[in-house]
């Protein structure tokens, strides 16, 4: 169960949230006096985060060592609760714009192989009794740490901004379900001041000290879906008496790929990945069912609609060819997703000068191409009908990044890889980047 804190009228206020929408929120309202991000303010941000770095690194290592799969982030939520509550700041109602800042909490089912002293080494016990290998292979532990750094710095720098800041921690981003779960649980109707704009950030395996922040489409839309084939089970020695769902699934997988190569316009980027095939339990048993777990990525709504339509047609065709009767044709189950992430140009133009003042002229990349990776952060902002900006913050050691480029690779490692890690030098830098971005958005 998560907690929300609001300071509109009575300081810290505790409200219960249902378990499937774990979140932590902190609302700060500053008096109506502010200064634009300047050399003096950059110095204050550096000083505030530098003084807090030891705490942030310790929190990060703890979060990394204890990852939690989506919708199970109870320990992580408790840490955020403790740290935010410990700030104990006084709150004064003011005027100005309202900014919502978000960080996601969940890890993924990957066994860590980084060899870090604070690596995740124990499987997580899930609510259904199963155990799963789990690690923070996408940097969400850094995101939460950056949120805590920003929250403390913004309290210390209240005289430098005006308006209202709401920070919240989101579950289950990796499932594509967390943002929508929070919306369904009333995130936008629980009494928080409505946002005027949003801010978030994400780790990227680029070099530490660099931030990418470009206008327009930055990440692809995403869908998670399952296709369930129903056949006729039987003995492995008598396949003629069965309708084999494993064969249907095996035929469907390469056929789906022709949707990308032969149906989607070659100039319209799209990805279709079958991430898992689930069928059977024995060597000599033809099972009754088989399920394919599919992930889609694209930038355009018409491409998404085409892919889903053709998946249905391919699945149906494979099943009919196998002799499946009409009443048992494949079933598609949509499990969640999000539209493309689109940075607001005006907000990018507001934030980038502040990032440049913090990091240096050559450290802010504003022409990085859109990626096929996806997010669900924007679902809250889209539901609130407000613009937002989303930063990509480099977390790879500079020497490793240079070596990767020299070897012809675009990065030393990738997100969701067992070797993914966040250089500890990125902990204070990410907190500073998020803080200076927030200050620029809440300046007079």
Automatic annotation (TrEMBL):
Pfam families linked: M20_dimer, Peptidase_M20
Alphabetically ordered keywords of this record: Hydrolase, Signal
NCBIfam families linked to this entry: amidohydrolases
Signal peptide interval: 1-34
Organism per entry: Sphingomonas qilianensis
Protein name per UniProt: Amidohydrolase
Keyword match Signal: yes
Annotated ranges, domain Peptidase M20 dimerisation: 221-302
InterPro entries linked to this entry: Amidohydrolase (IPR017439), Bact_exopeptidase_dim_dom (IPR036264), Peptidase_M20 (IPR002933), Peptidase_M20_dimer (IPR011650)
Entry keyword Hydrolase: yes
């Amino acid at each position: 169960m998560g907690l929300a804190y609001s300071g509109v009228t009575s300081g810290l206020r505790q409200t219960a949230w249902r378990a499937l929408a774990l979140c932590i929120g902190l609302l700060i309202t500053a008096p109506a006096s502010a200064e634009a991000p300047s050399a003096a303010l950059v110095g204050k941000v550096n000083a505030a985060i530098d003084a807090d770095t030891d705490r942030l690194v310790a929190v990060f290592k703890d979060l990394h060592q204890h990852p939690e799969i989506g919708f199970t982030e109870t320990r992580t939520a408790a840490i955020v609760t403790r740290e935010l509550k410990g700030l104990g700041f006084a709150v004064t109602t003011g005027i100005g714009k309202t900014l919502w800042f978000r960080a996601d909490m969940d890890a993924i089912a990957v066994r860590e192989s980084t060899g870090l002293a604070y690596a995740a080494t124990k499987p997580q016990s899930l609510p259904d009794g199963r155990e799963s290998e789990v690690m923070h292979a996408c940097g969400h532990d850094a995101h939460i740490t950056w949120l805590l750094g920003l929250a403390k710095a913004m309290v210390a720098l209240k005289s430098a901004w005006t308006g209202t800041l709401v920070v919240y921690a989101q579950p289950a981003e990796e499932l594509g379900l967390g943002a929508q779960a929070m919306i369904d649980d009333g995130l936008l109707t629980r009494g928080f001041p409505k946002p005027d704009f949003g801010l978030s950030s994400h780790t990227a395996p680029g070099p530490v000290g660099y931030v990418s922040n470009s206008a327009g489409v930055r990440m692809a839309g995403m869908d998670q879906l399952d296709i369930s084939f129903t056949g006729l089970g039987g003995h492995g020695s008598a396949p003629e008496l069965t309708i084999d769902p494993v064969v249907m699934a095996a035929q469907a997988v390469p056929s789906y790929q022709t949707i990308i190569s032969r149906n989607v316009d070659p100039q319209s980027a799209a990805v279709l990945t079958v991430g898992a095939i689930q069928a059977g339990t024995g060597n000599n048993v033809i099972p009754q069912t088989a399920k394919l777990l599919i992930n889609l990525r694209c930038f355009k709504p018409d491409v998404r609609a085409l892919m889903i339509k053709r998946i249905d047609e391919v699945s149906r065709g494979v099943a009919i060819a196998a002799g499946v009767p009409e009443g048992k044709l494949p079933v598609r189950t949509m499990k969640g997703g999000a539209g493309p992430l689109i940075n607001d140009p005006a907000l990018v133009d507001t934030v980038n000068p502040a990032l440049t003042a913090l990091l240096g002229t050559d450290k802010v990349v504003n022409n990085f191409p859109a990626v096929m990776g996806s997010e669900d952060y924007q679902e809250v902002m889209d539901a609130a009908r407000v613009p937002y900006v989303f930063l990509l913050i480099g977390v790879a050691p500079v020497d490793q990044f240079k070596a990767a480029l020299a070897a012809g690779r675009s990065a030393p490692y990738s997100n969701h890889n067992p070797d993914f890690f966040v250089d500890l030098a990125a902990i204070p830098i990410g907190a500073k980047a998020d803080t200076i971005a927030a200050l620029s958005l809440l300046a007079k």
